[in-house]
Amino acid sequence: MTDSTVRRGVYTVIGVLILCMMLFPVYWMVNASLQPSGNTLTAGFLPLDPTFAGYRRALSEQGGNLVTSLIIAVGTVVLSLAVATPCAYALSQFRSRWVSVGLLAILISQMIPGIVIANALYTAYERLGLLNSIPGLIVANCSSGIPFAILILRSFMLSLPPSLVEAARVDGAGLFRAFVSIVLPISKNSLITAGLFSFLFSWSDFLFALTLTTKGGVRPVTLGIYQYLGTQVQNWNAVMATAVLSAIPAIVLLVAAQKYIAAGAIGGAVK
């Protein structure tokens, strides 16, 4: 057995141990969600007597919040891509010193603390009547989704051969038609990557939901879990079941789109 084989074996064992440490909270969340009510915090490592009562209760009490989060997340993806895609293409095509200024402004916007943005939006929303509304939360979540999507999409669109769009223009296509028919299909991987991260930003948002909703009419699942903790201290299986249900969409999307994420993330690095 060579030294390189031994090293690979050691690295593999260390990697598996680190992975187990990272995934243990997820396993314990699932395990706790299957425990009988009142037995969650003292549960064993295996759910020997599993029950789905927590999931039934979570769906009945938090199902509406899950749907609200899904609507907000999908709306955030649509609006973020609708704004970021043409903006990213324009920034990749313009040859001006002001492009660098614009990119710097986008980067700076990513550094602004969320609580600052949330407080500013609260004042504006109060005047516009957008508090406690799904459109208001969609626009708020786009404040983080759009800048990130612009940076991801532009890095890929810089690698697009100009001859493709020029050929479409020669064939009689206008700028918009060339953009829709040529640029968007080629940018599929980066679009999926940007859209997925916009979805995750919105799905996991808590700060905007807490700040911009003052009533119970519109309540994303993150805020629902937060408020659930104060009323279900004796029913942790329902709380954990809600957490498991809220994690499923993100897990499914990440698994389904992982090859597109890898291609979209490195696509702009290869010209």
From TrEMBL:
Keywords, comma-separated and alphabetical: Cell membrane, Membrane, Sugar transport, Transmembrane, Transmembrane helix, Transport
TM segment ranges: 9-30, 66-91, 98-122, 134-153, 174-201, 236-257
InterPro entries: BP-dep_ABC_trans_perm, MetI-like, MetI-like_sf
Localization per Swiss-Prot or TrEMBL: Cell membrane
Primary localization: membrane
Domain ABC transmembrane type-1: 66-257
Any GO BP annotation: transmembrane transport
Coiled-coil positions: none
Cellular component annotations (GO), alphabetically ordered: plasma membrane
Membrane-related topology note: Multi-pass membrane protein
Family recorded in the similarity comment: Belongs to the binding-protein-dependent transport system permease family.
Protein's name in the database: Multiple sugar transport system permease protein
Source organism per UniProt: Kribbella steppae
Taxonomy of the source species: Bacteria, Bacillati, Actinomycetota, Actinomycetes, Propionibacteriales
